[in-house]
Amino acid sequence: VVVSDDLEEIVQEIHRMQQQVDVIVTSGGVGPTHDDVTIKSVAAALDCDMILNQEMKEFLQKMSALQQEIKSNDGEEACVANGNATPPPPLTDAQLKM
Q: Which of 41, 45, 61, 89 could form a disulfide with 10 if both were Cys (CB 3.0 to 4.6 A apart)?
């Protein structure tokens, strides 16, 4: 299923899919951009709060081509739906040098 980058549309589609399947996988459009609504939409659909995940923030900082800090006042790009997402495993030094 493809939906536009619209919070209400994503929430509605997740609610619709919850009635039909056991597992929902989202992809594409998942930050780290300050204007992405995918994670916010998933959290809203699952009635979860957004929390800052420090491991995710560090991962995104390491992956940044310029090793810049995430340019959000509150690190919003590193937030996840509380209890419903797991950050990727830490990268090795070899992976970071690629």
A: 41
Query: Rounded to the nearest 10 degrees, what angle do helices 7-18 and 38-45 cross at?
Result: 50
CB atoms within 10 A of CB 58: 15
3-state secondary structure of 53: coil
Whole-Å CA distances, 59 to 8, 11, 29, 38, 88? 29, 27, 17, 19, 8
Q: What is the DSSP letter of 5?
A: S
pLDDT in tens for each of the 98 residues of the chain? 889 889 999 999 999 999 999 999 887 655 566 677 888 899 999 999 988 888 888 877 777 754 554 455 556 666 777 765 565 666 666 665 55
**Confidence (pTM):** 0.60
Query: Which amino acid is it at 98?
Result: M
